[in-house]
Each structure stands twice: as structure tokens, then as C-alpha cells.
Amino acid sequence: MPDPPIGPNDTLGDIYYKTYTEEARGDAPHHPPWGLKQKDTFLEFAPCRDWFLNSFPPGEVNRQRARTHDGLYHASIVGVANTRVANHQIVRGWRTMVKERGDWEKYRERLLRQVKDFEKLKSAFVEEKAKFESEKKSKEWGREGLRSKLRAAKELLSKEHAEWKEVCKKDNQCMFAARSKITDLEAQIATLKKKVEDIEADKEHVRFNELNLFLIMLFFVCQNIA
Q1: Sorted alphabetically, which keywords does the UniProt record give (predicted)?
Q2: Which of 71, 148, 206, 225 gives 67 a disulfide partner, CB atoms 3.0 to 4.6 angstroms apart?
Q3: Is 160 within a domain?
């Protein structure tokens, strides 16, 4: 069926479809000549009609226009039935999807709570592990420190023992030398004492002899005087 001629009251959509030819615009992009505004909704008839009339490409409009009445009737019945069944299946699938999504959201929330609990347990475990490692190191360091102190004490004791032995050895040597000197001094004192005693004895003997000589001389003098 050919397009009717363009009339004075035709809209841009009417002109868009009436002037279409496959030779002239067959490969051009389809730009629906809508008068729809961004604020329009499908609660009103006019926006719905404008969208419905101008949404199909001109080639499809011409193909449907070329069909017979029976063909259009048959296509309409089949299309409506299939659309209703498809819509019913879509709604059922959508409803099932919504329920499954609700269940999934609950599962997701439960999983997130489990993840949070796991993170808390993990943090507590890491903290306890760090504490354990720190205590372990402290004990190891403590034992090592005690071992070091024990080794140092042993070394110091060994050194002091060696020094003590050396001091004792030197003291023994000094005491032996002092004892030898004392013995020598005692012998020297005894010798000197004997010499002094001998000298004193000699002095007494000399005095006695001198006294005897004096008495003899005095006797002779007295004899001469008499």
C-alpha cells in the first residue's frame, strides 16, 4: 500500500515515514522523530502513542503494511499470545530472581558477618601469636642472659682464683723470705750478743787486773814509806 501524500497537518513523524525509500535512506541510522521530552512518563496517552508510533524503523513499518489482512491478523494473534506467554515467563523469572536475590542478600549478610567474625578471630590470633613470640623471645633472651651471666661469673671466679693462687704464692714466697731474714737476724743478734758478752767479760777481766795491779803498787808504796 503506497504512503498517502504529505498533508499540511502531518507531524515530523508522518513526514519521516512517508518520505522513506530504501534506496535513499536504507543504510542510514534510524532516528525516531519523537516529540518526547525527558520529563514525560507513560502515565499519559500522548507520550505512549508518540513512542509507539515512532519507535519502529520505516523498513519494518513498510513490511507490515505490505501484508494482507489475514496475515496481519494471524501475526497479531501469534504475537500477542507469544508476548503474553513470554511476559508471564519473564514475570515468573523476575519474581523468582527477586526471591533468590533476597535469599542471596541474606546469605551475603550472613557471610559478611562470618567474615567480620573471622577477621576478629584472625586479629586476636595474630595478637596472641605476636604476644607468644614476644614472651618466647623474652624467655629465650632471659635464659641466654642467665647463661651469659653464669659464664661471666665462672670466668670471673676462675680469674680471681688464679689471681688468688698467684697472691698466695707471692705471699708464701714473701713469708718464707721474711722467715729466712728473721732467722738470719736472730742468728746475727745471738752472735752480737755473745760478742757483747765476751767484750763485757774482757772488760771486767781488764778492770780486775788493773785493780790488782793498783793494789800491788799501793802495797809496795806503803812498804817503802814505812
Answers
A1: Coiled coil
A2: 71
A3: no
Q: Of 18, 11, 4, which Cα lies nearest the Cα of 33?
A: 11
Give the number of residues written for the chain.
226
Rounded Cα distance, 170 and 157, in Å: 19
The answer to whether the CB of 13 falls within 8 A of the CB of 53 is yes
Domain that holds residue 28: 1-66
Asked if 20 and 2 count as a contact pair (C-beta separation under 8 A), the reply is: no
Whether residue 27 is contained in a domain is answered as yes
Question: Does residue 72 sit within a domain?
Answer: no
Amino acid identity for residue 29 in this structure: P
Three cell numbers written together for 217: 803498787
Q: To 10 degrees, the CA torsion angle through 82, 87, 93, 95?
A: -160
- DSSP label at residue 55: S
Which pTM was predicted? Answer: 0.38
The contacts of residue 51 (CB under 8 Å, 6+ apart) are: 34, 36, 42
Q: What does each of the 226 residues of the chain score in pLDDT, given as a tens digit?
A: 555 667 777 777 778 888 888 888 989 998 888 888 899 999 999 999 888 888 889 898 889 889 999 999 999 999 999 999 989 899 988 888 888 888 888 888 888 888 888 888 888 888 887 887 777 777 666 677 777 777 887 887 788 777 777 876 777 777 777 677 778 777 877 787 787 677 777 777 767 777 767 676 666 666 666 5
Q: Are 61 and 17 in contact (CB under 8 A)?
A: yes
For residue 44, being part of any structural domain is answered with yes
Q: What is the DSSP letter of 44?
A: S
Listed in sequence order, the residues at least 6 apart from 68 whose beta carbon sits closer than 8 Å to its beta carbon are none
